[in-house]
User: Fold these one by one.
Assistant:
Number 1:
Amino acid sequence: MSITGSGDGPRVKKRRSWKSRLLELLLWTGIAIATAIILIMLSEQLLPSNF
Amino acid sequence: MTVLRTLGKFLVSVGVGVLLFVAWTLWGTGLSTDRAQAALESEFGALPPIDSRELSREGVQSFKVDDSFKPAPGEGVFRIVIPKIEVRDMVVQGVETEDLRKGPGHYPECRRGFNKPLCTEQEEVWPGEVGRVIISGHRTTYGAPFYDIDLLERGDEINLETRWGDFTYEVTGSEIVPPNAMDIANPISDKPELVLTTCNPRFSAAERLIVSAELAEASP
């Protein structure tokens, strides 16, 4: 936790736990891998036969 | 702000996914081809020789392979060796997508297992025979066996090692044709010829690159 100051008085900024950050990273990694898998499955239609 | 940040992260993830797909297409597909080639090489080495007889018509030396040789789709039929561009691959029977995933494909005649338009109504031509041996191969994916065939010049050697002998063809020229030019798949010719076809330019299928060669030497 850190405290930052401004004209409106101090604001408390909560730091996210490492578990939360890790989960988010896994989510985005999963989306990237899922995108690649979908494209690979579609590749027979996307790529010409002798590319 | 949170929505924009989340959308940004989502788009970055999708972009990374597209890059993974490109990497798989360019390099990953070659892994399955390497495995298939290793299996084909090992099977080919164990196969018995095939009978052929020598013909000599109007001074042109050629051969006729036993008519009973009717390989199935995807079966290894002979080896292609192009020293100049360091190609050494087993050629499979057929030019369907599944066949070309294993390696370069020999254009087949239309019979059981081979469907139009990726086959010819004419009798298929084997190395050493009068007519055109037509071999199609990937330029970018699945090991890209024909990646460098644009470097072939008149006189360069292309060796076809078969179960009925070894045949050396010499390049006579090359041309670029539209992708729908079907006349390149015509096996009829009055001399023993070889045609290699692939996509052109690299990483595109906008055109087809055709390399032609003629039989120069035969060692049955």
Number 2:
Amino acid sequence: MSTRGAVLDDAPAGVTPVGRGGGGGPLRWLRKHALQIYGVLAFVYIFTPIAYVTVFSFNEPARTNLTWRGFTLENWQNPCAAPDVCSALGNSLRIGVAATVISTIFGTMIAFALQRHRFSGRGATNTFIFLPMATPEVVLAASLLTLFLNMRVPLGFTTIIIAHVMFCISFVVVAVKARIASLDPALEQAAADLYANELETFRRVTLPLVAPGILGAALLAFSLSFDDFIITNFVSGNVTTFPKFVYVSAQRGIPANAYVIGAAMFFLSMAVVLGAELVRRRRVRG
Amino acid sequence: MSIAAVAHTGSGPEPGQEPPAATLGRRSALPYLLLLPGMAWLLVFFAVPIVTLLGTSTQTPVPGGDIGAFEQTFHFGNYADAVGEYTEQFVRSFVYAGLATLFALLISYPLAYLIAFRAGRWRNILLVLVVAPFFTSFILRTIAWRQILSEQGYVVSSLKFLHVIPQDMNVTASAVAVVAGITYNFLPFMTLPLYASLERIDPRLIEAGGDLYGSSFAVLRKVTFPLSMPGVVAGTLLTFIPAAGDYVNAALLGTPRTQMIGNVVESRFFRIVDYPTAAVLSFVLMAAILVLVTLYIRRAGTEELV
């Protein structure tokens, strides 16, 4: 009947409406906390494969990493022991950095043009930027490969970077645009009032304010590039990236070292993101 | 992580919003110069390839030529042949993607609701935890599911012990596993836009629903859910589109009998070297998605996309 407490219990504890939902007891507790309990279960689900990868990164090495053989630190002490894992990782890092730099610069330029200027074709440009994000990866992959084959472009690092920049640009544009849109125009007006010319205003006010958005976009581009498999698989030729290495070796057994890289990547990214959040909190409070 | 950006725009001003007046009114070459490198890149490596793909789709093998040699003959019969031969995989792609999108919505909605209305100062941390799977490799986490759900794994054996699933059921290498894998892998694409639009709802509206004696279910159905529609639309699209074109989940978690259209495109390219058929299938996939998305957006009655 009156489960509205469930919707409304944003109210501070103790202000619980009186006379609703009879009596105490575990059932009432369950109903009151149903959403929280659900949340815990959902996060257990989200973290299950991550926990699996982490646990199996400590498994004793063998040709495959399917069954638990025993705890060892060996894989972590020597992550490059399995041949090819680290060379694939190195390729992924190199491609990721190149694709990130190019797509972040180009994407940021587009974002400023779209958000700060009125020009004919602005609407069409917005739509066009959206299209690569709305196209399934396999279609992007197939079409690029067809182009490269027709033009007889040799497949390798260059073609992978070309492809990654292509699909990262749109995401950078969207992320940076959002940041520019959230700026308070009063700040730039203040700079102008203080006799800063347009270029100075941009360099000393606008750009520093947009910088966190650009940094976020760069991280996003890097993670998209680093984790891409489908497009990379089509246009990479003989070059092996980390995801491609894992996919290919899935047939004959993935070495535990690949799990080490996967787990390390996870904890490193979590540390960076959670660290940034803690710094932000301290700043807000202080 | 990718969607964080997309979802985030939802809470900022609308993209259609005009640039601030201060920078308007001057017509200069600057915006075009800013657009030039990035747009040129997209034109050459996105738009041109799509057109090339369209061209390839009507090619036929050179008579007596090498493997992989094709000539343009405007053979539109390719479309009928390929679509006819792979109808099953097309249907499967859309059914799997549709089911995965539905499950992702059912799983994500309460979670996004929890984060938006109950998490308090833990909001940002919980959002990071939602995108946490993106911090490990997509392939690696899919393989992890394959191992977890495998016959020898703890999950399946305990479920069998508890008679929740039949004793002779095989969870991996099945349609169930493929749909479950897609659901898991694209879950953040659903949760983040849902969160972004739930977070914007004024809690007083929900309170008002309660004050007017709406049951919590009625409030959800009549107030919260309709107000979160932009998030639902964005989330379902962001999940459905990559899901329909995915082939990694079907390849790692499925069997030849659960192949999706992505698997066919991949094998036509690499194993059979039949570019025209691969081009036809990619093109039809893209067209089908575009049509479905347009119909869906029109029905859902929202223009808010990016």
